[in-house]
Specification:
The strands form 2 sheets. Strands 5-4-1-8-9-10-11-12-13 form a 9-stranded mixed beta sheet, with helices on both faces. It has a 4-stranded mixed beta sheet with strand order 3-2-6-7. Strand 6 and strand 7 form a beta hairpin. It contains 10 helices and 13 strands. With about 300 residues, it is an alpha/beta fold. The protein has one domain: UDP-N-acetylmuramoyl-L-alanine:D-glutamate ligase, CATH 3.40.1190.
């Protein structure tokens, strides 16, 4: 089971707050933490912890953050040979304001080297992509690179999973290269043109996106779980009930587990239940990467919550 993740790597700077500020307001924090992040890196670590041999395609800067992030990925079992050290700009950073009472957050990102991940980087990693069962992508690197990687992987018969986050428009013909598209409500609304507030809305949005050529649309619905839409079905998969501590990495945990389940040739409904479980474990912990579950933890959780 092999997965290639092409995406972002950056350092997350957390400030813990009693509540989130409104524009123009300063709120004194209760603590500060620096943790590895970036949707690509988070999902790569998530895949590796769940037992997949995981390659990462990305860039970091020639700075202390880049060195620490590479070290962290290696310690988590991610193959970093396709990560380029770029001397032209800084490693990507994210600043996260975390409401300790609700677990909600506000995030600002300075992409740095994330926005320099290129078509050339994809070409240099084609051996890994060809060997993989799944190519997992997000949108914190240039859309042109995402499109190129998806097309190249599809041509080699590799299943492509695109997590379209953060929300942005996509090239009209990218959908036919995708095995699964995994938007949240906001992303599904933007991509489909259907405002997603209810599960029925999500079904309509999913059907619109499926009509463009993607095989499965999996819409993440937070506390309501996830919804699978394909040409011949629409299936709601309920979430597991847990107390949220930090919702930051929930989508990354979900996508990593979904990619692993797809690589294992799981039924999509079962794959989404597994992904829901990974997200549930993640939000009970602090940190986008530190909260990602191991295979053992995921299996224990599923066994405990089996009906």
């Amino acid at each position: 089971m092999r997965i290639t993740v092409a995406g972002s790597i950056h350092m997350d700077f957390y400030i813990n707050l009693p509540r989130l500020p409104v524009p123009g307001e300063t709120v004194l924090g209760k603590g500060f933490t620096m943790l590895p992040g970036g949707k690509g890196a988070n999902q790569a670590v998530g895949c590796a912890r769940l037992g997949a041999y995981t390659y990462m395609v990305s860039r970091v800067g020639k700075d202390f953050m880049g060195k620490e992030l590479l070290k962290n990925l290696r310690e988590n079992g991610v193959d970093t040979r396709y990560i380029r050290v770029d001397e032209e700009t800084h490693t990507g950073v994210a600043f996260i304001l975390l409401d300790e009472s609700s677990g909600e957050n506000m995030i600002a990102v300075a992409p740095g080297t994330d926005y320099r991940v290129s078509v050339e980087d994809v070409d240099n990693s084609m051996k890994a992509i060809e060997e993989s069962d799944v190519l997992l992508l997000q949108l914190e690197i240039p859309v042109e690179t995402v499109y190129y990687a998806a097309k190249k992987a599809w041509e080699k018969g590799v299943k492509v999973v695109l997590n379209p986050a953060p929300a942005r428009e996509l090239p009209s013909d990218i959908y036919r290269y995708l095995y699964a598209l995994t938007p949240n409500r906001v992303e599904a609304s933007l991509l489909s043109g259907v405002e997603v507030k209810t599960i029925d809305d999500a079904v309509k949005a999913g059907r619109e996106l499926v009509s463009r050529g993607v095989e499965y649309v999996v819409i993440t619905l937070g506390r309501e779980g996830s919804l699978i839409v394909s040409r011949d079905m629409a299936k709601h998969v309920p979430a597991f009930k847990v107390k949220a501590v930090d919702t930051t990495g929930a989508g990354d945990a979900f996508n990593a587990a979904l990619a692993v389940a797809i690589a294992e040739a799981r039924d999509m409904v079962e794959a989404c239940r597994i992904a829901n479980a990974a997200a549930a474990i993640q939000i009970t912990r602090l940190g986008a990467q530190s909260g990602l579950p191991s295979r053992e933890e995921l299996e224990e959780f599923l066994a405990k919550h089996s009906s």
